């Protein structure tokens, strides 16, 4: 079977072309969807989109300076074709690829036909959770409030840097991340007796039909305040707020957790999140001959 891979630079066109395919797994495709939604609003051309198809789209991917993200249902043939086409057409070095492990293996085969000296190395595995029945903790002190630039900017930049360092993620745009999320009131702090002990946020939501999908994260508790239930409490509080704000009849809320961090996984399970799937991230090493 021949797969045609098409490159799109327009986020609106990508969102429209992939809507039906993404609707088959809204939670699994949430990472790409939220990035595409942010790219659509930014309109900066920094993200490229790729669609593999026979007659109708069967898989898709996006590329940016942060790497490659593969759709969750990419077959080995789809992923192989995407890997080869992306390798031929992207002119900068891609630092990593995210997707299901078997899709990444096939992507690497296609990519390596163009760049035979590239090697792929497992970085981490993420567990994807979806909220089913929300359970609000009743015995955790504190309250959620919307973060503001005046009160929280410096602390949120410090905590965001600490979060990305903790998850071994190199991210040069922390200041932009914090200021952008503050502007759209998507950053929150958990306060205990007027003192902030942690923060969390949610990505740009996306709509498919009558369903709005929200992705919570990052979720961060200051090291000295951990093991007190704050992560569970603030995640539950934000989930409740998003359910109340949701503009559509159907609301789905998801988040990611590091598979190697049992404490965070337990925190989310305690408030009603259940495992949906998992995805892996592999670094791409570009070796010279």
UniProtKB/TrEMBL annotation:
InterPro entries in the cross-refs: Acyl_CoA_acyltransferase (IPR016181), GNAT_dom (IPR000182)
Classification via Pfam families: Acetyltransf_1
Any one GO molecular function term: acyltransferase activity, transferring groups other than amino-acyl groups
Domain N-acetyltransferase positions: 142-289
Name of the protein: N-acetyltransferase domain-containing protein
Source species: Aphanomyces euteiches
Upper lineage: Eukaryota, Sar, Stramenopiles, Oomycota, Saprolegniomycetes
């Amino acid at each position: 079977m021949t797969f045609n891979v098409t490159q799109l630079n327009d986020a609106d066109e990508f969102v429209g072309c992939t809507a039906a395919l993404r609707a088959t797994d809204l939670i699994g495709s949430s990472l790409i969807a939220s990035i595409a939604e942010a790219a659509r609003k930014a309109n900066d051309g920094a993200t490229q989109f790729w669609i593999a198809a026979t007659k109708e789209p069967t898989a898709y991917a996006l590329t940016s300076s942060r790497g490659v993200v593969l759709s969750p249902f990419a077959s080995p043939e789809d992923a192989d074709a995407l890997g080869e086409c992306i390798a031929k057409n992207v002119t900068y070095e891609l630092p990593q690829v995210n997707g299901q492990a078997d899709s990444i293996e096939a992507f690497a085969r296609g990519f390596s036909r163009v760049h035979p000296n590239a090697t792929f190395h497992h970085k981490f595995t993420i567990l994807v959770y979806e909220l089913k029945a929300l359970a609000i903790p009743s015995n955790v002190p504190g309250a959620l409030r919307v973060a503001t630039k005046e009160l929280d900017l410096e602390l949120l930049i410090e905590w965001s840097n600490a979060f990305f360092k903790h998850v071994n993620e190199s991210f040069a745009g922390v200041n932009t991340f914090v200021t952008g999320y503050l502007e759209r009131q998507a950053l929150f702090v958990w306060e205990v007796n007027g003192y902030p002990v942690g923060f969390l946020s949610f990505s740009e939501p996306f709509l498919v039909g009558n369903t709005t999908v929200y992705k919570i994260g990052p979720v961060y508790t200051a090291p000295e305040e951990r093991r007190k239930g704050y992560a569970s409490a603030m995640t539950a509080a934000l989930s409740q707020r998003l359910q109340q704000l949701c503009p559509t009849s159907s609301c789905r809320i998801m988040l990611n957790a590091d598979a190697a961090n049992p404490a965070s996984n337990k925190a989310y399970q305690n408030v009603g999140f259940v495992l949906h799937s998992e995805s892996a991230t592999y670094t791409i090493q570009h070796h010279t001959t």
